[in-house]
Design brief:
CATH class of the largest domain: Alpha Beta
Number of strands: 17
Shape: elongated
Helix content: 40-55%
CATH superfamily of the largest domain: Histidine kinase-like ATPase, C-terminal domain
CATH topology of the largest domain: Heat Shock Protein 90
Structural class: alpha+beta
Number of helices: 15
CATH architecture of the largest domain: 2-Layer Sandwich
Distance between the termini: 129 Å
Length: 520
C-alpha cells in the first residue's frame, strides 16, 4: 500500500513538473524566448523545434546537430557566436553570451540573443552539456538603431549650427548641472563641453560679474513660473574677448521637484552692435529732422521782421521830405547792407532745410547755357568791378541742358560770388562749359584767389564751416556751398573741386547725359 501511494505521489510530481515546464515554455514563448539544451558529445540540440518556430519555420530538418542551426546564422556573425562559446568553454567568461543574425522563414534577418552556461563536464574537464535561453531582440535592436541614428543626427546638426544646444538641470536641492552640451560650447563660451558637463559653475565663472545676478534671478523666475527663459549676457572668453550671448530655453518640471531646460545659446555680439547702430541712426535722424524743422520755422519767423527793417532802411535812404545827413546815410547804409547779408543767410538756410526735408521740387526744361551764364555774369559784374576782378567767358553756341533753370542759376551765382569774394585784386574768374564724350556737361568756374589746402577741400561742403575764411574778415555764412552741392546732387550731378593754396580754385559742376532730375 505504501509503495502504491509513493508511486502515485511520484507520478503527481512528474505531472506537476511537466505542467510547470509547459507553463514556463508558454511564458517564454510569449516573450519571443525559448530554452534550449545542447548535448555536446552527441551533438544534439533539444527544443530545436522552438528555435525554428521562433524564426517562422513550420518544421526543422531531421538532423538536430549544431551545424543545422549554424546554417541559419549570418556568415559574418558565425565567428562571433563561436568565439563567445570558446571563451566560456575555456573559463574566460562565466557565461556564454552572443548576439547574432539568423535567416527567418520570410528571408529577413532576425537578431537573436543567446545566453547560457555549461552545466556538465567530463572527468577531463571537457564540456558535455550546455543549457541556455534564446530571445528574438530584432525590435529592440531596431529601436536602438533608430535611437543611435537620432543621436547621430543631433550631434551632426549641433556641430553645424552657429550656436550651442544644451540641457540644464536645477535639482530640488538647488544644485545644478548640464546633462548635455553640444560641441560648439568651447567656441562660443570658451569652456570645453566636457568641463561644463562636469562643473556647471565653469560657465558662471565666465559670465561678466555684473550679469551673474540677473542670470541667477532669471533662472529662478523661469523655474517658479514655468515661463520660457530668455536672457542676454556677457561672457569673457579665454582669449579675453568680451562677447554678448543670447540664450533661450524651455523649462520642464520633474516629478522629484527638479527642473530641466532644453535651450540654445548664440553669439549676439554682431547683431546687438547692428541693432545699437540702427537705434543710434534712428535717433540721429530724428534729431536731424527736429533740427531741420526748427531752423525752417525760425528762418521764416526771422525773415518777416528783417524785411521790415530793410524796407524802413530803404525808405529812409530815399525819403526826400526828411533827408539824412551824410553820417546818418552812412549808418543807414550799414544797417541795410548788414540786413541784406543776414537775409541772404536766412534764404540759404531755408534752401538747405527745404532740401533736407525733401520739399524742393525741380522743373526741368531745355536751357541754353551760354545765355544763362551771361545773365549770371551780368548780375555779379558790379561786385567784380568793385573788387577789381575780371570776368572771362568764351561762349560756345548750341550747348544746352535739360535742367532746372532756377536752381542751376542759383548754383552758378553762388560759385561766381565766391570766386569774386575770395579772389585777389587784379585777379580773374573764368567760366567755361564743355560737352563730354558721353554727352554729359562740365560747367567750370575757376578763380585766381587764395586757394584751399587739401584738408580744407575735404571739409568744404560742411554747413556753417567757413574754414580759414572765418578769420579773414570776409562776410559769409558757410551755408552757400552746402546748398550748392545739395542742389547739384538733386539734379543728378556732382560737384568737384581742385585747389591749391595761393593759386586759386576750380569748381566743376558735372551733369550726366541722359539723366533727367527727379522731383525731390
Amino acid at each position: 500500500m505504501d509503495a502504491d501511494l509513493q508511486a502515485l505521489s511520484q507520478a503527481a510530481q512528474l505531472r506537476l513538473a511537466a505542467r510547470a515546464g509547459e507553463l514556463l515554455r508558454a511564458a517564454l514563448s510569449g516573450a519571443d524566448t525559448y530554452v534550449w539544451e545542447w548535448d555536446i558529445v552527441a551533438d544534439e540540440l533539444a527544443e530545436l523545434e522552438q528555435g525554428f518556430k521562433l524564426l517562422g519555420y513550420s518544421q526543422p530538418p531531421p538532423s538536430r546537430g549544431a551545424l543545422v542551426w549554424d546554417a541559419l546564422v549570418h556568415p559574418e556573425d558565425r565567428s562571433v557566436k563561436h568565439r563567445a562559446y570558446f571563451r566560456h568553454a575555456r573559463g574566460d567568461s562565466s557565461v556564454y553570451e552572443a548576439t547574432y543574425r539568423a535567416r527567418a522563414a520570410d528571408g529577413q534577418w532576425r537578431w537573436l540573443h543567446e545566453r547560457g552556461r555549461i552545466v556538465e563536464r567530463d572527468v577531463e574537464g571537457r564540456p558535455t552539456r550546455l543549457v541556455g535561453i534564446q530571445t528574438d531582440v530584432t525590435e529592440r535592436r531596431q529601436v536602438e538603431a533608430a535611437a543611435a541614428a537620432a543621436v547621430s543626427r543631433l550631434v551632426n546638426i549641433a556641430a553645424h549650427v552657429p550656436g550651442m544646444l544644451f540641457q540644464f538641470e536645477r535639482r530640488a536641492d538647488g544644485t545644478a548641472r548640464f546633462p548635455y552640451v553640444s560641441e560648439r560650447c568651447e567656441a562660443l563660451l570658451g569652456v570645453p563641453s566636457t568641463a561644463l558637463m562636469a562643473d556647471a559653475a565653469a560657465m558662471l565663472r565666465r559670465i561678466d560679474f555684473a550679469d551673474r545676478g540677473p542670470m541667477m534671478d532669471s533662472i529662478q523666475d523661469s523655474m517658479r513660473t514655468m515661463a520660457p527663459w530668455q536672457l542676454k549676457f556677457r561672457v569673457h572668453r579665454r582669449d579675453h574677448a568680451l562677447r554678448w550671448i543670447r540664450g533661450s530655453a524651455t523649462p520642464r518640471l520633474g516629478p522629484d521637484g527638479s527642473c530641466i531646460w532644453h535651450g540654445y545659446f548664440e553669439d549676439a555680439t554682431e547683431a546687438l552692435t547692428i541693432e545699437q547702430a540702427q537705434q543710434e541712426r534712428a535717433a540721429a535722424e530724428a534729431a536731424n529732422r527736429a533740427k531741420t524743422d526748427f531752423l525752417s520755422r525760425m528762418s521764416h519767423e526771422l525773415r518777416t521782421p528783417l524785411n521790415a527793417v530793410l524796407g524802413f532802411a530803404q525808405l529812409m535812404e530815399v525819403d526826400a521830405t526828411q533827408p539824412l545827413s551824410d553820417d546818418q546815410r552812412r549808418r543807414v547804409a550799414l544797417i541795410r547792407e548788414s540786413g541784406e547779408h543776414l537775409l541772404a543767410m536766412i534764404n540759404d538756410l531755408l534752401d538747405l532745410t527745404s532740401i533736407e526735408a525733401g520739399r524742393v521740387t525741380l522743373a526741368p526744361e531745355a536751357v541754353a547755357l551760354d545765355p544763362l551764364i551771361e545773365d549770371c555774369l551780368a548780375m555779379v559784374r558790379a561786385g567784380a568791378q568793385r573788387d577789381d576782378v575780371s570776368l572771362l567767358h568764351a561762349p560756345l553756341s548750341g550747348l544746352a541742358a535739360h535742367i532746372d533753370r532756377k536752381r542751376l542759376r542759383q548754383v552758378l551765382l553762388n560759385l561766381l560770388s565766391n570766386a569774386i569774394k575770395y579772389n585777389r585784386r587784379g585777379g580773374q574768374v573764368r567760366v567755361g562749359v564743355e560737352r563730354e564724350a558721353d554727352g554729359g556737361l562740365r560747367l567750370q568756374v575757376a578763380d585766381t584767389g587764395v586757394g584751399l589746402s587739401e584738408a580744407e577741400v575735404g571739409q568744404l561742403f560742411q554747413p556753417f564751416n567757413r574754414l580759414s575764411q572765418a578769420r579773414s574778415g570776409i562776410e559769409g555764412s558757410g551755408i552757400g556751398l552746402a546748398v550748392t552741392q545739395a542742389l547739384v546732387q538733386l539734379m543728378g550731378g556732382r560737384i568737384e573741386v581742385q585747389s591749391a593754396l595761393g593759386r586759386g580754385s576750380t569748381f566743376t559742376v558735372v551733369l550726366p547725359a541722359g539723366v533727367e532730375p527727379a522731383a525731390a
